[in-house]
Amino acid sequence: MATIKSVKRWFWWHKWTSLICTAFLLLLCLTGLPLIFHEEIEELSETKKEISHAADANPVPLDQMAATAVKHFPGKVVKLVVWDKEHPGLVNITLGDSPSSHYKTDKYVVINSYTGKVADTPAPQEGFMYIMLRLHVDLFAGIPGKLLMALMGFLFVIAIISGIMLYGPIMKKFDFGMIRTEKSKRLKWLDMHNLLGIVTLTWATVVGLTGIINALADVMLYAWQQGQLTEMTAPYKNAKPLTGTLSSLDEALNIVQQKVPEMQPYFIAYPGTIYSSKHHYAVFVRGTTPLTERLLKPVLVDAKTGELTDMREMPFFVNAYFISQPLHFGDYGGMPLKVIWAIFDIATIVVLGSGLYLWFARSKSSREQIARMEANYNLTVTV
Amino acid sequence: MKNFLHIWLAPIVLAVITAIGLLSALTGDNLWDVLSWITLAAPLLVGTYFLNKHLRVAKK
Q1: Which of B3, B18, B33 comes nearest A203 by C-beta?
Q2: Cβ–Cβ contacts within 10 Å for residue A145, how many?
Q3: A93 by DSSP, 3-state: which?
Q4: DSSP code for A279
Q5: CA distances for A39 relative to A44, A49, A79, A87, A103, angstroms
Q6: In A, which residues are within 8 Å of B41 by CB distance?
Q7: Which residue of A has its CA nearest to B25?
Q8: Which helix H or strand E contains A334, and what residues bound it?
Q9: Enclosing domain of residue B20
Q10: A74 has pLDDT over 60
Q11: pLDDT exceeds 90 at position B29
């Protein structure tokens, strides 16, 4: 059972972890709010992406789409070919100065796979939503920014745990949901902080933890490159660099689909990109159920001979990353879920704001509060 | 034990309901989505109910 000493200790943890992370968490909640609805917001400014085609229409060859994309941005090379999950029939092609060039100079071409024509050339690295995204993800500071955010997420989770440990002693004498409105403004806000904190507890914990996992994406990508990808391409360790024209992208996809007909293509990474070796097309396929569509499987196809050389399950930490994404974004249950996400987000802002207010208002009365709790405990011990 | 439940019954029930909601939309579509909307709305409605109840009384 909690003693006054442990209450003081949890209070110390709650105060300091919260104080350090609150500014960042407020920023995360505020920028996260528009990000929940990023699809809808982006659609406002975009041309409608409805793809209509005859039922028996066949998509044009991938090689042709890749050539079209390169023609649109001469001098660039294809890095990724991505099937648009939200808009079937559209294929997104990422181009860069070289396969391993920095993503900042990447260009994007969306191609209608039934007409083979360029449907759009989005510039996701500008505009309001891009600023929101970068403030949310890494504060425009790259990997160090992401690691800082992961640390703030970790402090947030400790703040939640210590908050739970304080909830019990505070609520000892009261019914669930009570708010002391008559005594003082500070007590009223304390009770609202506790009530909103306890009802949003599970959501905040899950979004906090999945946020940490997302912030560590680069670490996981690196671990995958050094681990599984290196193992898969071990026979090519001493192979000569690729020269001349690459094998057909369509045949690479074909051979993969024959091997795993039950899975659908998600994206193909060109040789030399961060998702592949220097000698392979990496074809990433995914399942078709709500859960398995988030679990990818890399299949390597020799980009010279066109042969399938290896296929694996992703390691658990990569799968954990993929499953954590929807749980962070709230984009896996239609519009009502997004609205629920937004309300939880706003409730969290109130919890953070009231916590900050309580810290300002409390320095004097915190001693009284602890003294009160102490009195209660002495009471229960003697009874 | 009675004390423990007095404090923790509601939070535990809400936590379990929220967890069901978070996972259900992940495991399936349609009905599972609807289940997640209902279960995830529960903690928000409970919070709103008590805020409304106490703050309105205070105004009178």
Answers
A1: B18
A2: 16
A3: strand
A4: S
A5: 9, 12, 24, 11, 21
A6: 340
A7: A333
A8: helix A334-382
A9: 2-59
A10: yes
A11: no
Residue A133 token pair: 């995204």
Instruction: Please indicate if any CB of chain B lies within 8 Å of the CB of A203.
Output: yes
User: Is residue A320 predicted with pLDDT exceeding 60?
Assistant: yes
User: Which pLDDT band, with edges at 50, 70 and 90, does A309 fall under?
Assistant: very high
Number of domains forming the structure of chain B = 1
Q: For A147, how many CA atoms within 13 A lie in the half-sphere containing its CB?
A: 6
* C-alpha to C-alpha distance for A127 and A309, rounded to whole angstroms: 42
Q: Which residue has the higher pLDDT, A208 or A294?
A: A208
Query: Scanning the structure block, which residue is given the tokens 């396969």?
Result: A99
E-state strands within A22-147: 77-83, 90-96, 107-112, 118-120
A378, two tokens: 């002495």
Paired residues of A93 in beta bridges: A81, A109
Task: Measure in Å the smallest separation between the Cα of A95 and chain B Cα atoms.
Answer: 32
Q: What is the pTM of this model?
A: 0.88
Task: Cite the DSSP H helix spans in A121-200.
Answer: 128-137, 142-171, 185-199
Q: Which amino acid is at A283?
A: V
Of A202, A198, A153, A161, which is closest to residue B23 (Cα–Cα)?
A202
Say how far apart CA B50 and CA B52 lie, in whole Å: 5
Residue showing tokens 């930490």:
A317
Cα dihedral A94→A98→A100→A104 (10° resolution) = -60
Q: Which of A164, A171, A176, A348 to mutate to test the interface with B (most CBs of B within 10 A)?
A: A176
How far apart are alpha carbons A198 and A35 in whole angstroms? 25
Residue A225 is classified by DSSP as: I
Rounded CA separation A59/A347 (Å):
46
